[in-house]
């Protein structure tokens, strides 16, 4: 028990483990003293520092190691509530972790587990009774418009899923509120359409986020044209998440068939990473990708992959052209934050340099991305990073720290997607398809 204030409060930690848009739900067994038979996240008494204790609970209750199998995404402000039946005041410290696997080893504290959308917590028809204030704890760490805007670590596909989760979660709340406030499809639409509009502009360089939000809203309108309300949007976002994850998986699977020999890449694209893991590379070169150096994480992930046995080499961004000219590289494989209608690619700064160097050396360049990353807009706003990441001295200097650059279409040999390998000239058909989803704003 953790009591930092000397009162009768009981401090506990609750961790939500997220995988593919769903969270791990655990049913409390007879071995625990409270809320037996109810469902919650990984939880336990905070016998010391909650930040340390939550990792201990994850290891003990699931067999997963924080830092290897799970990584902290967010922690939230504590949830305080009183349980009159137990005569106890709880202080719940919530955490959200991204989880690499769904395979867990249950401890005796739980007798069942399921991966489910967190929205089941609010569903009165769901037969899993949640522990008290579970949704409140989840909301403290759930993705938000602000967290998506501020995220400088993850790629576009990841953030598009987070955007769908934001819309899904709010649609679930509005659906649950019908029991108390009645049905108001027009009011629900106005609220959720406004939220969708804000999500569309969180990351202006990432077409995939806009396309996936637009598709969900368009499908909701198609399902209930006359009175599109929260339940239709909830269903559409749930289906949209499933479709988005499948598209990314299929793009990676297609790309893996083309990965053999020595490959070079940069930055972090989860789709490219999965393609490399599923391929048969003889060697992998990874540019470190300053300033965040996310390429280092990619290199470590490839080196640690159980099903790969090839050397992995990390190099500075400035050495990219030198590496391609001096090493026997067979293919450059990169992701995309956005594919413009003309076939040019917006991606992490350094992609253009790598592609131009590859063209000089006659090395093919493959862009691995789901078709949702194709933009319907001709112009793309290129984001910039913090100037202090480049220079934080006192001299009167202008600083450039572009986060993205544009690689010309004629430097790209093919787009590897869930639909197969597309040539740059085939982009127009996908653009027309995606533009059709933008009509929901006229409802």
TrEMBL record:
Pfam families: IF-2B (PF01008), NUDIX (PF00293). Residues 8-138 form the Nudix hydrolase domain. GO terms for biological process: L-methionine salvage from methylthioadenosine. It comes from the Archaea. GO terms for molecular function: S-methyl-5-thioribose-1-phosphate isomerase activity; translation initiation factor activity. Keywords: Initiation factor, Protein biosynthesis. Gene3D superfamilies: Nucleoside Triphosphate Pyrophosphohydrolase (3.90.79.10), Translation initiation factor eif-2b, domain 2 (3.40.50.10470). PROSITE patterns: NUDIX. InterPro entries: IF-2B-related (IPR000649), IF_2B-like_C (IPR042529), NagB/RpiA_transferase-like (IPR037171), NUDIX_hydrolase-like_dom_sf (IPR015797), NUDIX_hydrolase_dom (IPR000086). Belongs to the eIF-2B alpha/beta/delta subunits family. This is Initiation factor 2B related protein. It comes from Natronorubrum bangense JCM 10635.
